[in-house]
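re: ur question from earlier - yeah i can do the single chain one, its not a big deal. heres the input i used so u can compare w yours
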Amino acid sequence: MFKKTLVAASLATAAMGVSAYQIGENNDFNVEVYGVAAISVVNYNTTNSNDVDSTGYNVENESRIGFRAGKAMTDSIEVFMQIESGYVGHLSEAGNADNEAAPGGQGTLGFRDTFVGLKGDWGKVRVGRVLTPMYELVDWPYANPGLGASWDWGGDVAAIYDRHSESIRYDSPAFGGFTFAAATGRGDSSVKDSNFYGANAKYTFNTVTLMGGLETSENFKGAVGTDTLGYLVGFEAGLPGGFGLAGAYKVAESETAGAKHTQGSYSVIAQYWNGPLGVKVGYTANLESELEGAKQDDADSIASIQVMGVIEGFVPYVRLAARDTYNGANSGDTGSPDIVTRVGLEYGF
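and the output i got, formated as tokens:
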């Protein structure tokens, strides 16, 4: 019933004297509706007064939905497109979603990867809102389980973009076990010469994948005079007996008016699967950053363990994390890590 309701949606073209255009019925595009239903209950047992989540437990809704379509334009070129919403989040009484000022917040259609592209045996090009090649590696496989508050966005040196609009990205076909991607785009279109450039490369042999990423920018996110550099090297390996291991090291560097701020970070993840049952353990740390060679006393870390299962496509899980992410003289840190517990269920369709 849900799919038929979507199929029945139409675009009004009466002003042009053309009959209604029905998705998936009156055209020969291949249209797919997809998404993730994900809900969890999380408790932030915080010891830090600066943590906005210290008021108690949250019901966090990471559900999202998307639409994909594609059609051959020539024998060697296919046009494809995608529009995807962000997470539903949780709405406050004022109607504002997580981290967003407008009602609906991250759940807005188009918040995640939304683009038009061309693809063929030569690879694919996407124009619009996409992950940068560098952040694609940061996000997976090194952020799960529950390491993002330090590894993804918790560093003290902002140096790379993540999912970004006004991007042009190329992904190569596979050359044996080797693939690469390259992208460029505007950082802030209202600022002259605010641009970024990035690339990643992966090489797979047997059950091991080696990967690296690089990104540089001018006038980072519209900040005139701030140039950045980020890079990452890492691996992912499948081991005998259901074990797996992944690790990465990245560096973020920002320079403003000749003052250079640099920080190194690393992430290590181990997992074990026995049939439908899996256990994942992760540890990540931001090392002390250096501003013009002086240590800034801002190191932080997260240790996490997650137990999960796969049952008819459903993934129930329990996660426990110790976050020591508020160090520094003005952070209000008590010296004890925050203990975060999460119980959730996910299903992709």
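Residues 133-139 form the longest helix (7 residues). not sure if urs matches, ping me
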